[in-house]
Amino acid sequence: MKTIVTIFRKELLDSLRDRRTLITMVAIPLLLFPILIGISSRVMMSQIKKAQDKVLRVGLLTNQTPQAFQSMLMEREDLRVIEYLTLEEGTAFVQSDSLDAFIAFAPSFERDVMELRRGGVSFIYKSAERRDIETDRVRKMLDAYSTILREARFKRMNLDAAIVNTIDVKEQNLASQKERLAEVIGGFLPYLFIIFCYVGAIYPAIDLAAGEKERGTLETLLTAPVGRMQILLGKFGVVTLTGVLSAGISIFGLYIGIRQVREIPPELFQTIMSILELKSIVLLISLLIPLTVFFAAGLLSLSIYARSFKEAQSLISPLMIVVIVPAFLGLLPGMTLNEVTALIPILNISLATKGIIAETATTWLLVEVFVSMIALAGISLYICSKIFGRESVVFR
Question: pTM for this one?
Fold first, then answer.
């Protein structure tokens, strides 16, 4: 054991001297979340405010627009009404972004309303992301005008407007805010943590095997009075540690990123902080350890097989898609942790993480995930030891 620790310390020091390892293990996970959250929140709030404050240009068919609705629009300071348009002109102006919306009432609109029929209105807009907010502002005015007409119709008929409400539905969502929030971010966060586990282990794995081959130091190490399994475990421990640290630092970076956003409502902020409580973090890290062991064994196997640092990179880089696909599947709606998905590598970690965040994962399913990943990690480490024990592979 003392020999393994000595090799571990030696390999760890070598890895920490490598700038690429420090960047992928510390700098990127620590800075990525604060930068992403800070920029995205500010850009989003800026775009929302811009859409809310924008003076909208709304086109009308003046000769067909009811006077009451036209007056309603004219009274608003956040609108600029463009009149005397034809339907074709209005549509063309919306298409060319000269108008934000165009409203055309049917010629028989007022007659239809007076005769207790539905009046036709064409609401033409061009919606894309931020413009949804702008479109909703115009839509709300149409809804308000519809309410005015409905109340006037019922008053003329001496009826209570409430007569149209045939049922009174009282909705009660038993899912907590934490569960609803976990459904939104619960798939996205494990996706990032899994990626950081993999990326954080790549460079140490390449450097400690293919890199040593290229530098000619692996042969020197193999002549030392220690067993190959001890050497492998020392290297393996460093690769696993860097992967877990990368994921752990990314969680810390996420915490810092959320703390710096001031626009988050207090209730939502408290819910997010409860997700990042110590118990959840410990469970997340404990899930990531066997996953990183699995990654480390696979990466070391390929790195040992490679002749050079460059060849190891070319072998390992395509495997990113193998990691991304099952992690991405965890983002899909309806994908849940069950007896089958708990046995699928990477996907089970993604779904288990979502369950931990929402506090919906059952203990026995989490145990199944742990056992399956530990067994898979053991098998991958065994295969790695066999590869490292073959002279034809180590010195190819």
Answer: 0.63
pLDDT reported for residue 110: 85
Q: What are the residue boundaries of the structural domains of the chain, listed by start?
A: 2-41+177-394, 49-164
Average pLDDT over residues 54-59: 83
Q: Are 330 and 350 in contact (CB under 8 A)?
A: yes
**In the beta sheet, which residues pair with residue 68?**
none
Torsion, Cα 385 387 388 394, to 10 degrees, reads: 180
* 130/314: higher pLDDT: 314
**279, β-bridge pairs:** none
- Full strand arrangement of the beta sheet holding 101-105: 79-82, 56-60, 101-105, 121-125
- Checking if the pLDDT of 204 tops 80, the result is yes
Parallel, antiparallel, or unpaired: how do β-strands 79-82 and 121-125 relate? unpaired
pLDDT (0 to 100) of residue 308: 82
The predicted structure's pLDDT at residue 285: 79
**Dist CA 381 CA 386 (whole Å):** 9
92: which 2 tokens? 């063309």
Fold for 49-164, please state it. Answer: abc type-2 transporter like fold (3.40.1710)
Per-residue DSSP letter, 307 = S
DSSP category for residue 120? P
Cα separation of 20 and 208, whole Å? 13
Q: Which tokens is 63 given?
A: 């000769």
- Non-local (6+) Cβ contacts of 173 within 8 A are 180
Q: Are strands 121-125 and 101-105 parallel, antiparallel or unpaired?
A: antiparallel
Q: Which residues contact 261 (CB under 8 A, 6 or more apart)?
A: 37, 38, 41
CA–CA distance, 339 with 348 (Å, rounded to integer): 10
Closest C-alpha among 396, 217, 376 to residue 312: 396
Residue, of 1 and 388, whose pLDDT is higher = 388
